[in-house]
Amino acid sequence: QFKADPIANRPPNAEYLHDFEVRVLSVFEPIIQNEQQHKSVLIVAHAGVIRIIKSYLSQSTIKNMFTIEVISGSCERFEV
After folding, report:
1. Which of 13, 23, 36, 51 is the S-S candidate for 65 at Cβ 3.0 to 4.6 Å?
2. Contact, 34 vs 24, CB < 8 A?
3. pTM for the whole structure
4. Cα–Cα distance between 70 and 80 in angstroms, integer?
């Protein structure tokens, strides 16, 4: 069911994508707001979190998060 409609269905033993997005952004948004006066912030996260952040920064929707490529073990850099 999740693969057919990942927005309406949750993966087995996991949370709904919308709830995941809310949880990630509830941590990420204050980091951006508090760190805009500083130079750099390091965030270590798995691909799902990176996809949520990339969607947010590109003003995309969560529906598009699975089209965002994240290479395992890679580094991502964002200018905010």
Report:
1. 51
2. no
3. 0.82
4. 19
The pLDDT of 67-79, averaged and rounded, is 88
Cα 22 from Cα 76, distance rounded (Å) = 21
Alpha carbon of 39 to those of 31, 56, 65, 68: distances in Å? 12, 20, 27, 26
pLDDT at 77 over 90: no
pLDDT digits (tens, 9 = 90+) for 47-63: 999 999 999 999 998 88
For the chain, domain boundaries: 17-67
SS (H, E, C) the chain: CCCCCCCCCCCCCCCCHHHHHHHHHHHHHHHHHHHCCCCCCCCCCCHHHHHHHHHHHCCCCHHHHHHCCCCCCCCCCCCC
